[in-house]
């Protein structure tokens, strides 16, 4: 209704606030998706920082209840929910989540304590969103060293979270390099397009500048339509 202009988005945000004690993954996934759309729209306004504060307020209680480590008797959906919530809090700049993500990432890179598969994406996203060139270099090194394609894809999907313009360009150049399988290039560009306002502009320019190569590469298949969509 808010998207159709029938009710105010303020009403939607009030409804969202009522879900702070919600334990269900599917509900949180929907809230996260809708808040993501709102964040994207508000990234062009003065309210972007305020929506990040709202995200932190809504997701903090469930984040504290879940913690970082699995609890005895937990199901698959709890693990998914933990990844979703920590990723959301980390991207929004929640201080405690950011600090813990940095600590765990350092241990992971040094081989002291390897991150579980369901925590890698949220930790990677958090580090990149608030990271610098050395963070990106470390992620690209992890990508090169990964012996499983699943881990390579996981890293490729989150690289676009980096926010500095020159590093965004580095990620886009990487997308077309031999390091990335042709069928995965779209995931990297899509990650940049969805990562930030700067990323959207840079990805759009990059696609236009490299249109011939991209079009020839995918020959009108489903990947070119996916690229246009993102």
Automatic annotation (TrEMBL):
Q: Which parts of the sequence belong to the ERAP1-like C-terminal domain? A: 2-229
One example GO MF annotation: zinc ion binding
Recorded GO cellular component terms are: cytoplasm; extracellular space; membrane
One GO biological process term is: peptide catabolic process
Keywords assigned by UniProt, alphabetized: Aminopeptidase, Hydrolase, Protease
Tell me if Hydrolase is a UniProt keyword of this record.
Answer: yes
InterPro entries referenced in this protein's UniProt entry, alphabetically: ERAP1-like_C_dom, Peptidase_M1_aminopeptidases
Tell me its family.
Answer: Belongs to the peptidase M1 family.
The record's section on PANTHER family has:
PROTEASE M1 ZINC METALLOPROTEASE, PUROMYCIN-SENSITIVE AMINOPEPTIDASE-RELATED
- Name under which the protein is recorded: PSA aminopeptidase
Recorded source organism is: Eubucco bourcierii (red-headed barbet)
